[in-house]
Amino acid sequence: MIFPLHSRRSLLLILLFMFSGVCVATPENDRKQYLDIFAKNIPGVPVSEYVHGSMMLSQDAREQFNSIMDFPPFQDSLDRGKTIWNRTFSNGKKLEDCFENQGENIAGNYPYYDETTERVITFEMAINQCLEMNGEMPFNFTDVDTMGALTAYARRLSDGMLMNIQITSPGALEKYEKGKAFYFKRIGQYNLACASCHLTHGGYYFRDELLSPTIGQAVHFPVFRGGERLYTLQMRYQRCMEAVGATPLESGSETLNNLEFFHSYLSNSLPLKSAVYRR
């Protein structure tokens, strides 16, 4: 089925909910509402399966994924990331010294809202803060050979951790709402929003592409598209912007950081499984 009528009504209901004075939307209410949409779009599929994206509906795709992950063609990139992670700074410290548990089981807490700077801090930003604090040069957010490879390896140290994005202050809620607003904003030549494909139509086919649901997407980035092309989550946002005919925003921009904050929250309580193959 391709873009059925009732899924278009779902988007209308969401918009009415967002702007109605009768109901007060909260992050957890949002998440429950979106889960209800997917329960209708892809009935019978447990939420725990959402981490597999479109593969949850294709046994052939899942078997191909498992085969590729046994001997990932992007192992060189992971090895490069490990080397960077373990490199000793000129002052004798390492990246792991900047994070709790030497960087293990912490990636699910990112992004987070920093009360001091009043901004969202992504995992990539935290890495660059560590580098600069120790007298090292920061990495470009879109450099796949440095930041890309590094986060592909470092986020794997948190595989199995449940996503745990916290919204506990008015400032954090404001950033969440800004990310949510952009998620629903139609942009580009094709006048599409993130929600157009991955919320109201998550689980349906668009042409020959099965659209993955919003919930579960953030837990597996960075990904290797086709087994070779590395994308961080924000690089994937940029690619989607290009696909709809919009000028992509910069990685690390406030807008994309807020979007990642909102997007990641929706995958709370789902396990991380980073640096994976995607078609």
Defining key terms:
3-stranded mixed sheet; mainly alpha; 279 residues; two-stranded antiparallel ribbon; 7 strands; 10 helices; single chain; disordered N terminus; 7% strand
Describe the protein in words:
The chain is mainly alpha-helical. 43% of the residues lie in helices and 7% in strands. The strands form three sheets. It has a three-stranded mixed beta sheet. It is globular and about 55 Å long. The two termini are 21 Å apart.
Brief sketch in words of this structure:
The chain is mainly alpha-helical. The chain is 43% helix and 7% strand. It is globular, with a radius of gyration of 19 Å.
SSE topology sketch:
Layout (H helix, E strand, L loop, with lengths): L4 H15 L7 H15 L17 H12 L4 H12 L25 E3 L4 E3 L1 H11 L10 H13 L13 H14 L10 H5 L6 E2 L2 E2 L12 E3 L3 E3 L1 H11 L10 H12 L10 E3 L1
Parallel strand pairs: 5-7
Antiparallel strand pairs: 1-2, 3-4, 5-6
Helix pairs in contact: 4-6, 7-10
> Average pLDDT, to the nearest integer?
90
C-alpha geometry: globular
First CA to last CA: what distance?
A: 21 Å
What series of H and E elements makes up the topology?
A: HHHHEEHHHHEEEEHHE
| Portion in beta strands | 5-15%
Class derived from helix and strand content: mainly alpha
Major β-sheet annotation: 3 strands, mixed
Which strand order does the major sheet show?
6-5-7
